[in-house]
């Protein structure tokens, strides 16, 4: 949710009989409602071995305003790398579920990489001049290794469409939060499921992936990972604009320094020429 490199959870709870006790809402336990669980550092003895814990946000006004929530999930509505929320709820007198879209207003100086693995159809030199890129498939595995701002090695992994039943409403792609580390991803590995009886792993590696980008992996053909292709798309953001402004400012500053030094050197050369001409005139006399 905040591209910090950890996983958040959005769940729906109802009465205490149907929900875990840690998610019990004592104010109104008879109403089914969606809540946000944020992945934070552990401050309890029970999670000391793991180092992380989920903190429940009971006071989310937007989520609390949606009664009888059935399903809650994350989705990048604006395609900017920041995960928004989609909540399905029941309405009295209607059989269809109502869709609610909530924008994530969280602004953090963090980076991300979005990866989608397609079904592996032809993407180049295809017959009949048709390029069927395919659709996302369930089961691919994505992992990256990089170095954070402190110089320590970090890695993270995620699966794409791990569940396809029971109204899962999962993301069609994988969003990996990088935190405040703006370094390139040293290695990014993508693997796909293999047919029964095949022992060789089907995975490929890409290096130097730019943060705040979207990588579309086309595993074609599936049996030859070396032939897989990837298309990288950069996501425009304010950080890119600020970086360009800063770069232009530095270049202008350097040009000003060069111009001043050149002007001073030209003045010194003119002074030396006048002294040489005066000395020559004095010697001639």
UniProtKB/TrEMBL annotation:
Subcellular location: Membrane
Residue ranges annotated for the T-cell immunomodulatory protein TIP C2 domain, each copy included: 132-233
Top-level taxonomy: Eukaryota, Metazoa, Chordata, Craniata, Vertebrata
GO cellular component, one term: plasma membrane
Protein name: T-cell immunomodulatory protein TIP C2 domain-containing protein
Location (main, coarse): membrane
Pfam families, sorted: C2_ITFG1
InterPro entries the record matches: C2_TIP, Tip
Native source organism of the sequence: Pangasianodon hypophthalmus (Striped catfish)
Keyword line: Glycoprotein, Membrane, Transmembrane, Transmembrane helix
Keyword Nucleotidyltransferase on entry: no
Record field: transmembrane: 239-263
């Amino acid at each position: 949710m905040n591209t910090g490199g950890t996983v958040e959870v959005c769940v729906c709870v109802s009465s205490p009989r149907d929900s875990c006790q840690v998610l019990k809402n004592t104010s109104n336990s008879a109403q089914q409602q969606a809540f946000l669980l944020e992945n934070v550092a552990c401050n309890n003895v029970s999670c000391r071995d793991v180092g992380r814990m989920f903190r429940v946000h009971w006071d989310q006004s937007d989520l609390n305003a949606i009664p009888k929530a059935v399903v809650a999930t994350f989705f990048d509505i604006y395609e900017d790398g920041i995960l928004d929320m989609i909540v399905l709820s029941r309405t009295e007198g209607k059989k269809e579920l109502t869709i609610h879209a909530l924008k994530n207003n969280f602004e953090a100086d963090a980076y991300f990489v979005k990866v989608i693995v397609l079904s592996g159809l032809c993407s180049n030199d295809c017959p009949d001049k048709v390029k069927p890129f395919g659709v996302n498939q369930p089961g691919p595995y994505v992992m990256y290794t990089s170095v954070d701002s402190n110089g320590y090695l970090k890695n993270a992994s995620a699966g794409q469409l791990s569940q396809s039943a029971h109204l899962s409403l999962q993301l069609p792609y994988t969003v990996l939060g990088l935190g405040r580390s703006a370094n390139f991803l040293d290695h990014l590995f993508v693997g796909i499921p293999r047919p029964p009886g095949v022992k060789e792993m089907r995975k490929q590696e890409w290096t130097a992936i730019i943060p705040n980008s979207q990588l579309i992996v086309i595993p074609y053909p599936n049996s030859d990972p070396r032939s897989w292709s990837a298309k990288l798309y950069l996501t425009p953001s304010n950080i890119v604009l600020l970086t360009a402004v800063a770069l232009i400012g530095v270049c202008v500053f350097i040009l000003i320094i060069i111009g001043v030094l050149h002007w001073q050197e030209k003045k010194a050369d003119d002074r030396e020429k006048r002294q040489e001409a005066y000395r020559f005139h004095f010697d001639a006399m």
